Amino acid sequence: MARSRYLPDNFTLALVATVTLASLWPASGATAHFFERLTTVAIGLLFFLHGAKLSREAVMGGITHWRLHLLVFGATFVMFPLLGLALKPVLTPLVTPELYTGVLFLCVLPATVQSAIAFTSMARGNMPAAICSASASTMLGVFITPLLVNLIVVPNGAASASFDAIGRILLQLMVPFVAGHLLRPWIGGWIKRRASVLTLVDRGSILLVVYTAFSAAVIEGLWKQVPMSALAGLLVVCAVLLALALFVTTWASRALGFDKADEITIVFCGSKKSLASGIPMAKVLFASHAVGAIVLPLMLFHQMQLMVCAVLAQRYARRKADAAAAEIEKVKPAA
């Protein structure tokens, strides 16, 4: 019997299991140092493989659609931060200050790549533009996210200094990515044939970061500082952010005259935030003991956006299929 689309997927269950494991048996001392080093290697390998997988031709195919890209980048790096700041007085009472710092961090992250492209494909949107926009968002996020973190998330300097953080992200994420992309002509085909390897590294590296982050946070007393009422409030905060992001991107794409295929791309690329980029960035930008609370809103938002966008993509796809069927009926000769 097939699993309902409303139920969490296997990766979400693995995240929950990892958080539980870190809560019950947190890594400390030499074990924690080992996992830190292993995590750094795994993240570098992850971005190396993503660089080797990225198709330059597909990106170039959508790069000329500049109006769409500007709207997506505006949603990702302007709309979300403004929403996070504007809603802070209203939503902060629902969560702890540390959790709302995580909400603001979520708001300044780049868009996700894989799921944005997958949902755009499912909904029959503009695929070349989606590939270009989502990939460029990830690259720009390397530079923009650290600056925004120091501007609106922790303006008192609790995060790493902007240029230092950019340098560390470039070294840990961009250098492996560029190296993988340069080696694509030789290893791209091998990686494409072994997509399961990329999936394993992708998910495995995130689980490693989550385990090390939550281990440090638990040792510092994370669960004593985060009551159940705050977790319930965090669900409300994530739901409000996602609903507003979907509404604004849909309304803006229609108001600016984009066609349906472009609207789909704008909605799915402009309303998403990247777990794959966000967790490694949090590891670089924040102290180890603070990362657990920082990434918790991102983990909840990630699952929520997957569930909601899966339903939305199917609605878009049905609408396009119904429109195509109606056109066929119009041209059918009378009996």
From TrEMBL:
<dbReference type="InterPro" id="IPR016833">
    <property type="entry name" value="Put_Na-Bile_cotransptr"/>
</dbReference>
<keyword id="KW-0812">Transmembrane</keyword>
<keyword id="KW-1133">Transmembrane helix</keyword>
<dbReference type="Pfam" id="PF13593">
    <property type="entry name" value="SBF_like"/>
</dbReference>
<feature type="transmembrane region" description="Helical">
    <location>
        <begin position="39"/>
        <end position="56"/>
    </location>
</feature>
<feature type="transmembrane region" description="Helical">
    <location>
        <begin position="131"/>
        <end position="153"/>
    </location>
</feature>
<feature type="transmembrane region" description="Helical">
    <location>
        <begin position="99"/>
        <end position="119"/>
    </location>
</feature>
<keyword id="KW-0472">Membrane</keyword>
<feature type="transmembrane region" description="Helical">
    <location>
        <begin position="229"/>
        <end position="252"/>
    </location>
</feature>
<feature type="transmembrane region" description="Helical">
    <location>
        <begin position="68"/>
        <end position="87"/>
    </location>
</feature>
<protein>
    <submittedName>
        <fullName>Bile acid:sodium symporter family protein</fullName>
    </submittedName>
</protein>
<feature type="transmembrane region" description="Helical">
    <location>
        <begin position="281"/>
        <end position="301"/>
    </location>
</feature>
<feature type="transmembrane region" description="Helical">
    <location>
        <begin position="204"/>
        <end position="223"/>
    </location>
</feature>
<dbReference type="InterPro" id="IPR038770">
    <property type="entry name" value="Na+/solute_symporter_sf"/>
</dbReference>
